[in-house]
Amino acid sequence: MKSIITSAFAFAVSTTVAFGWTLDSDASAISYVSIKNADTAEPNLLPGLTGTVSDDGAAEIDIALSSVETYIDIRNERMQEHLFKTETHPVAKLLAQLDMANFTDMAAGQTKDVEFPVTLQANGQEATYDVLAAVTRVGEDRVVVASRQPVIVYADELGYMDGLATLQDIAGLESIQITVPVSFTLVFDNS
Questions:
Q1: pLDDT tens digits, residue range 119-157?
Q2: Which residues make beta-bridge pairs with 152?
Q3: CATH for the stretch 2-190
Q4: To the nearest whole percent, how much of the chain has pLDDT over 70?
Q5: Which residues pair with 147 in a beta bridge?
Q6: What torsion, rounded to 10 degrees, do the Cα atoms 158, 144, 115, 154 define?
Q7: Among 115, 150, 125, which Cα is nearest to 35's?
């Protein structure tokens, strides 16, 4: 489920603006909420992002799954080992094709809402999600892309059900939700 977040998110990453833009990894992150035992929600982060948007609108974002931050060290390790399987699947990837004409005339301070599909590749699987994002040009060479609403990622679409079952068993939980709301803030610079 937390790996799903990786995806989600993720999604937004593909909403960059302008030509030849590079993701500012220090200013960008994907966040998600995991829900266990039906009513306990916990925030999580996937800060290990790199990516670009080419001048033709091809967006590609890599998510280092070993960067998962659950705020509990042992849970981070369990997520990496049992859910994301980072030894064999260290990176999830977000892909999108953007219409760059929508962004070329944006002035600094201007925001546009955009909808687009994003494909998440993770765990040897692939799923496509619709994303609604706000794109804000914060400077001549800097753009922020943020989710307007969470992207709902489904663990079963990405082959994470066995990993969730293992995590549930190890932690002695009654349940872990397979649907994960994912949000993102992605900052791109045109160098």
A1: 999 999 999 999 999 999 999 899 999 999 999 999 999
A2: 181
A3: 2.40.128.110
A4: 90
A5: 133
A6: 20
A7: 150
